[in-house]
Amino acid sequence: MPAYSHQQIDARLLRLTEAAVTRLDAEPALRVRLAENVSRWQSPRLRAQWQRRLALPWPLLRRRLLAPTEEGAALRQDAPLGGVLPATERLRIMREFAHDSAAT
């Protein structure tokens, strides 16, 4: 199993988030999954934070998720994007990064 630097992990997470956001743009009905995911979280604090974020207009939340800032990176760490990407797409992205790490 390859060892990843913090920068590689952040880059992989950004790429996964970009792919999920692209799918959410193309299929807005999938955005309901975000709220469904949040509703199952155990942490009341995190659940409340994301419920407020999900109430924002999609273009604003989208920009924040993709922002090349510390805030963007922090949002990506716990974004409720599970189930948005098909498993094959997620695996493809994970393999890309595994290949990149093995080459270094």
Quick structural summary:
The chain has 104 residues and is mainly α.
Polypeptide structure, described:
The protein has 104 residues and is an all-alpha fold. It has one domain. 71% of the residues lie in helices and 0% in strands. Helix 1 runs antiparallel to helix 6 (87-103), helix 2 runs antiparallel to helix 3 (44-54) and helix 4 (58-66) packs across helix 5. It is globular and about 35 Å long.
Principal-axes shape call: globular
Percentage of residues in strands: under 5%
Give the oligomer, counting copies of the same chain as homo and different chains as hetero.
single chain
Tell me the Rg in angstroms. Answer: 14 Å
How helical, in percent, are the residues? over 70%
Number of domains: 1
The strand count comes to 0
What are the segments in which pLDDT stays under 50 over at least 5 consecutive residues?
none
Biggest sheet overview = none
How many angstroms separate the termini?
13 Å
Pairing-aware structural class of the strands and helices?
A: mainly alpha
> How do the helices and strands follow one another from N- to C-terminus?
HHHHHH
* Average pLDDT rating: 91
Number of helices: 6
Please describe the topology of this protein.
Layout: H1 6-26, H2 32-39, H3 44-54, H4 58-66, H5 70-77, H6 87-103
Helix pairs in contact: 1-6, 2-3, 4-5
Any key phrases for this structure?
104 residues, mainly alpha, 6 helices
